[in-house]
Amino acid sequence: MQHFYIDREIVPGEQIELSGEDHNHIKNVLRMKRGEKVVINDTKKISHICALAGFGEGCSYFSVEESSPCETELEAEIILYQGVPKKDKMDLIIEKAVELGVTRVVPVMTKRVIVKIEDDKKEAKKLERWNSIAKSAAMQSGRGIIPRVDRVMSFKEALREASALDRALIPYEESETLGVSMKSSREAIDGLKGMRSIGIFIGPEGGFEAYEVEEAIKAGAVPISLGKRILRTETAGLATLSVIMFSIQ
């Protein structure tokens, strides 16, 4: 069934109204008929199986038939702090990170970021596109929420925010110089079980500067290794999310 979202709690027995892009998708793309069913998720992470009751002026009406807690969400909030990559790589990162269970994606400006965001209007337009990608990925993968993509942060801002999380990890290609082994990395991943909030720091093309890793460690982040191979920025975060997803479920 198709998944849709409403930004409030759904009250049992009420009729639900979807408008805007959702209505257009239901009526003109899916060409749904009266009685056909969808899943509508509310802000309490409750999934409601709903039947199409009819169409109004610019809206679709649904009646709730069955409700149950959403089973597709991880117990922990996972935030991906992603160094802003070149071109359209961020689009792919957001799409796949949402599929893997991330709660938020925060674009981060680090020392080696090549992309320059100097125009507020262009940044707002890019952020709107990124959030649209997140919504589409959430619908496709049956997520109980629409993960959001936040405004671009500086590295220091991101570290300050992440210091309030239960744990933050920073995969680093030169982790051996810090005494990090695959064994200690596995232990760090296994130690995430039961935690409620987890951050992942991923560098842009070229990775992190050594002093940035030092700053992250001082802020409480734990350096880990992803193996002997050097992964691209669009691969490293997804690899980390994958092992975390399996570890904490």
Report the top-level CATH class of the largest domain.
Alpha Beta
Question: How many beta-strand elements?
Answer: 12
The average pLDDT score comes to: 93
Number of helices: 7
Can you tell me the CATH architecture of the largest domain? 3-Layer(aba) Sandwich
User: How many separate structural domains?
Assistant: 2
First and last CA, distance: 24 Å
Computed structural class: alpha/beta
Apparent shape: elongated
Rg over alpha carbons: 20 Å
Notes on the structure:
The protein has 249 residues and is α/β, with parallel strands linked by helices. The chain has 2 domains: 3-69, Beta Barrel (Ribosomal Protein L25, Chain P); 77-248, 3-Layer(aba) Sandwich (Alpha/beta knot), CATH 3.40.1280. The protein has 7 helices and 12 strands. It has helices at residues 20-29, 89-100, 120-141, 155-162, 182-190, 210-218, 233-248, and strands at 3-5, 15-19, 37-41, 46-56, 59-69, 77-83, 104-109, 148-149, 153-154, 167-171, 197-202, 222-224. The strands form 2 sheets. Strands 6, 7, 8, 9, 10, 11 and 12 form a 7-stranded parallel beta sheet that branches. A 5-stranded mixed beta sheet has the order 1-3-4-5-2. α2 (89-100) packs parallel to α3.
List the helices and strands and how they pair.
Layout: E1 3-5, E2 15-19, H1 20-29, E3 37-41, E4 46-56, E5 59-69, E6 77-83, H2 89-100, E7 104-109, H3 120-141, E8 148-149, E9 153-154, H4 155-162, E10 167-171, H5 182-190, E11 197-202, H6 210-218, E12 222-224, H7 233-248
Parallel strand pairs: 1-3, 6-7, 6-11, 7-8, 7-9, 10-11, 10-12
Antiparallel strand pairs: 2-5, 3-4, 4-5
